[in-house]
Design goal:
- This protein is mainly beta and 358 residues long.
- The protein has three helices and 24 strands.
- The radius of gyration is 43 Å and the shape is rod-shaped.
- Pfam families: I-set, V-set.
- Keywords: Disulfide bond, Glycoprotein, Immunoglobulin domain, Membrane, Transmembrane, Transmembrane helix.
- This is V-set and immunoglobulin domain containing 10.
């Protein structure tokens, strides 16, 4: 059995795949960069006078290592039991095909081993959910980059493998990422899916998870627009996994509002803005519907708009001033009409007291 790298289980480190003798590769062995590996020379006869190890072409000369002489004298290479080859401080360039050959007077046995030098994936798997291009199905993504050979990734739900589930529409893998597309008919709010990763040089099986959620919308206060002005209605998603598609409707039974003409729609992340230009009292007033939808479910919220005629502030102020002047003049006229000598009497009193008034 191959010697495992520190902290790596033997069956994962070696990754031995038995094969047939002859011209093909007999087995495949996985090692870890910086670790060590033991390449077994199987079926060596006790009568063998010498064991040779070759890297690449088994008929090349000189051999990589010999039980009699080392070619070259690399301290990373050594023999175990005078037959098996140990390689320490593994490097990527150590990867390749190795052949051991015993030297006998009557036979010439060979055993071939393919060594793959693996790298551990970086960090841990990352999971996320998206909506399919059709908008009807859920896509689960699991990525665990940086490993060689590529890791194995699979999705589960409550401990059951999704590969064998009736939910599964399709399953694809590309290098370090695994994607599963699920039918939305079985989905429900806060259902959790788990991705488990495994790698030939990792003893643990790290995992990540995704909790899917129906969209939640924030209520918006009513809006007011004066005829001829512009107004912007806002719809904000506070929670949605995967991200929700946002659309606007003029009413529950009306078709979706398409951008163009007097309508302008802009979305920034989880917020959608509907701008209405040149407000019309006859056509724009009422309640609009913001619809948020993902494969898990649908939510709607009303945003109500009131359209008013503009108020002439200058005219109102002028009218108030005119009315005030009219009131003052009217009161003055009434006073003078009923008591015309009032002002003269007041003047006489002042003259009598001061004596110096003109």
């Amino acid at each position: 059995m191959a010697a495992a790298a520190p902290g790596v289980s033997p069956h994962r480190a070696a990754g031995r795949r038995p094969g047939t003798r002859g011209g093909g590769t007999a087995e495949v062995v996985f090692g870890k960069v910086g670790g060590s590996i033991l390449l077994l020379c199987r079926n060596v006869s006790k009568e063998a006078t010498e064991v040779l190890w070759f890297q690449g072409d088994p008929h090349s000369f000189p051999p990589l290592f010999s039980s009699r002489v080392a070619f070259p004298p690399d301290v990373r290479f050594s023999l175990v039991d005078n037959s098996s080859l140990r390689i320490s401080e593994l490097r990527l360039q150590d990867e390749g095909n190795y052949t051991c050959k015993e030297v006998l007077n009557k036979t010439d046995h060979e055993h071939r081993v393919q060594l793959l030098v693996a790298n551990p994936p970086r960090s841990t798997p990352k999971c996320w959910a998206e909506t399919s291009s059709s908008g009807l199905m859920l896509q689960l993504f699991c990525s665990w980059p940086g490993g060689y050979p590529h890791p194995t990734l699979h999705w589960t739900e409550e401990g059951h493998d999704l590969e064998n589930s009736s939910w599964l529409i399709s399953s694809t893998s590309s290098s370090d990422t695994h994607v599963e597309t699920l039918n939305s008919s079985h989905l429900s709010h806060r259902k959790v899916f788990k991705c488990v990763g495994s790698h030939v040089v990792e003893q643990e099986e790290p995992a990540c998870s995704v909790e899917i959620k129906v969209p939640s919308l924030e209520l918006e206060p009513p809006k007011t627009c004066f005829v001829g002005d512009n107004v912007t209605l806002t719809c904000r998603v506070t929670e949605s996994v995967p991200a929700a598609r946002l659309t606007w409707l003029r009413g529950i039974t009306q078709p979706e509002i398409e951008p163009g003409g007097r309508y302008f729609i802009a979305q920034e992340g989880n917020v959608s803005h509907l701008t209405i230009q040149n407000c019309s009292q006859g056509t724009d007033g009422g309640c609009y519907v913001c619809k948020a939808q993902n494969p898990v479910g649908l939510r709607e919220v009303f945003v109500c708009l009131t359209v008013k005629q503009p108020t002439n502030i200058v005219g109102v102020v002028g009218a108030v001033v005119v009315l005030s002047l009219v009131a003052v003049l009217t009161i003055s006229g009434v006073v003078l009409y009923y008591n015309p000598l009032l002002c003269l009497r007041g003047r006489s009193k002042l003259v009598g007291r001061g004596g110096n008034y003109p």
